[in-house]
Design goal:
- With 364 residues, this protein is of the alpha/beta class.
- The chain is built from five helices and 40 strands.
- The strands form six sheets. Strands 8-11-14-17-20-25-28-31-34-37-39-40 form a twelve-stranded mixed sheet, with helices on one face.
- The longest helix has 34 residues.
- The radius of gyration is 27 Å and the shape is flat.
- The termini are far apart.
Length: 364
């Protein structure tokens, strides 16, 4: 597949210069770019690499003198990283699955398949499931009974979509994700050690009676909005009675776990290995760095940003920037970190003062 420089610039809403009818087949870093590739030299540190490669055209930051670089054509962009999103979208053909369904796919007769949908090898689609127009389902995906998947969805190999899960339009689900597994919800006949610990904050003795855990079954499901992305090997548990919810435009990285009854708002960014316990409410445009942990039954306000490995145990107001374990304001955690680094020196000073006082007491 090839694109002209003019076509790519139009897709980006950017301006093209030089031989705009020049065709390129793919993107490349400047040092290894071939004559039929578009070099990405939007950062100053990549400019010198153009002389090492063979690229005839490049994407450059606005204001760059492309003539001086010996290029035949150039696209100039004002926000390079945003332009990269458009470039990769234009160049990514997605999984190569022929429209229709593969002969090894098992599709229940009551399932509804939208126009132009492509279903790969060994896919299983359950009774009453609905698949939107132009959806692409890669090999070894399973879609449970009554599940609904919107138009233009892309579900990569080995993903598991549970019964009655509802997925919006233009959703990307990466390999191995599991959406709609049971929530982790168990109870004991009498008050458990967990309940005692939470009520007393660890001050009360644990109950003496031995008890076993009894499952609370998950009767709800999962609802996912439009333009959501779910990372590889992530897990989103179904709700106990009501549904677990993921809002429009939210992006989940790999290995994210969302517990039962969690509600996540719009346009959130949830990075790798984040874990949210059940029944937590996360607002709109929240960003959680990698390995953040959220306790159950708390509320995270809109526009909260939490640095990687932050542990959030209580409600967070809108707009707060957090860091640390337990979470505190980001600037406060920076001061705590500085103080911790000074602790060895401070303790030496305290030790010296203690010795001086002890020696003085002996001399009195």
């Amino acid at each position: 597949m090839s694109h002209t420089i003019k076509e790519i610039a139009a897709a980006l809403g950017a301006e093209a210069f030089g031989a705009v009818d020049l065709e390129v087949t793919s993107l490349a870093e400047p040092t290894v770019a071939g004559a039929d590739q578009l070099a990405l030299a939007m950062s100053e540190k990549f400019i010198d690499g153009l002389a090492e490669g063979q690229a005839r055209a490049a994407v450059l930051s606005a204001g760059t003198d492309w003539h001086a670089l010996g290029l035949e054509a150039a696209i100039l962009v004002s926000r390079p990283r945003y332009a990269l999103a458009g470039l990769t979208t234009a160049m990514d053909a997605g999984p190569q699955i022929e429209p229709g369904h593969h002969t090894t796919a098992v599709i229940d007769p009551s399932a509804e398949i939208g126009d132009g949908a492509a279903i790969g090898p060994f896919v299983v689609i359950g009774a009453g499931a609905k698949l939107g127009a132009n959806a692409k389902i890669a090999e070894h995906v399973s879609i449970g009974a009554g599940a609904v998947i919107g138009d233009d969805a892309v579900i990569h190999a080995g993903a598991r979509i549970g019964a009655r899960v509802r997925i919006g339009n233009r959703v990307f689900i990466q390999p191995g994700a599991v959406i709609g597994g049971d929530g982790f919800s168990f109870v004991t006949p009498e008050k458990s050690t967990v309940e005692t610990a939470r009520e007393s904050l660890g001050k009360a003795d644990a109950p003496a009676e031995a008890q076993s855990w009894t499952r609370i079954h998950s009767l709800g499901s999962v609802t996912i909005g439009d333009d959501v992305e779910i990372g590889a090997n992530s897990a989103i548990d179904r709700g106990t009675i009501s549904n677990t919810e993921i809002g429009d435009g939210t992006k989940l990285d790999n290995l994210v776990h969302i517990g039962h009854n969690v509600r996540i708002g719009r346009d959130c960014l949830i990075c790798g290995q984040v874990g949210s316990a059940g029944s937590t409410v996360i607002g709109d445009r929240v960003v959680l760095g990698g390995q953040c942990g959220l306790s159950d039954n708390i509320t995270i306000g809109d526009d909260v940003v939490a640095a990687g490995a932050t542990k959030i145990y209580s409600n967070v107001p809108a707009g707060r920037m957090l860091m640390g374990a337990p979470a505190v304001k980001m600037d406060t955690q920076v001061e705590i970190y500085k103080a911790m680094r000074r602790l060895p020196r401070v303790m030496k000073t305290v030790d010296a003062l203690q010795k001086a006082v002890f020696k003085r007491d002996q001399n009195d």
